Amino acid sequence: MKIPQVSPDVVLLDVEMPVMDGLACLREIRKQWPRLTVIMFSTLTTRAAAATLDALSLGASDYVPKPKGLRDPAEGFAYVKEHVAPRILALCPGTPQSVAATVRPPARTAAKALASPTRRVAAPGRVDVLAIGASTGGPNALMRVLARLPSSLQVPVVLVQHMPPLFTRLLADRLTARTSLRVREAANGDLLAPGEVLVAPGDLHMVVEGSAKDAHVATYVGPPENSCRPSVDPLFRSVAAVFGRHSLGVILTGMGKDGLRGAESIRAAGGQVVVQDEPSSVVWGMPGFVARAGLADAVVPIDEMATEITGRLAIGRAPDRLARSAAR
Question: Which of 98, 188, 247, 268 yields a CA-CA distance of 20 to 30 A from 44?
Answer without folding.
Answer: 188
